Task: inverse folding
């Protein structure tokens, strides 16, 4: 009985992790693009250095507002808003959110609908960017940057259990199963002690544990 309880408990602990891996493509993000910083810059449509100055939930993702400090590829206005598929209930396979409060290098690629997105597969440091592409240039106030499509506004994301909810449920089930198994073992030991039987002898074949 004890062995069965341990096996089932282990299965319950592993199952949430497998579900999370299946429900969250981020765990299976596969980078097939350029592997070098130079390749990242060449493949990107826009490259700049800026700082996150705000963000908001938009549909199933997040819109991050950047102050553009220097532009290294393409033409960009002083402030842009970039959408990423990371929100309260959805994580895109290779989406990325940048931390506010510090300058970051951002490489953007044009996606369907005419907007731009950054990818975790195209991250680059500021010193490396400057070494390859030079000092950059100031943003262009007359440059046009696509706004986040209005279709994303007001959409309520479909509810999906997050990974910590699934993991917590699995842990709770494991605790319950272990407690039930322990209670059964105690009852069997108490019964064996009352009948004068050794407690470390397994029950005979076909006898319930």
Result:
């Amino acid at each position: 009985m004890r062995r069965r309880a341990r096996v089932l408990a282990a299965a319950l602990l592993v199952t949430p992790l497998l579900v999370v891996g299946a429900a969250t493509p981020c765990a299976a993000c596969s980078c097939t693009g350029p592997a070098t910083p130079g390749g990242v810059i060449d493949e990107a449509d826009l490259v700049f250095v800026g700082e996150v100055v705000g963000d908001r939930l938009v549909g199933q993702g997040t819109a991050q507002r950047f102050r553009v400090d220097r532009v290294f590829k393409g033409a960009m206005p002083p402030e842009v808003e970039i959408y990423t598929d990371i929100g309260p209930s959805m994580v895109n396979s290779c989406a990325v959110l940048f931390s506010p409060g510090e300058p970051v290098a951002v490489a953007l690629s044009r996606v369907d609908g005419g907007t731009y997105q950054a990818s975790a597969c195209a991250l680059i440091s500021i010193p490396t960017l400057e070494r390859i592409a030079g000092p950059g240039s100031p943003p262009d106030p007359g440059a046009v940057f696509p706004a986040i499509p209005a279709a994303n506004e007001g959409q309520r994301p479909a509810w999906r259990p997050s990974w910590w909810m699934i993991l917590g449920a699995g842990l709770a089930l494991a605790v319950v199963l272990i407690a039930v198994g322990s209670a059964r073992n105690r009852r069997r030991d108490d019964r064996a002690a009352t009948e004068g039987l050794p407690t470390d002898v397994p029950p005979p074949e076909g006898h319930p544990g």
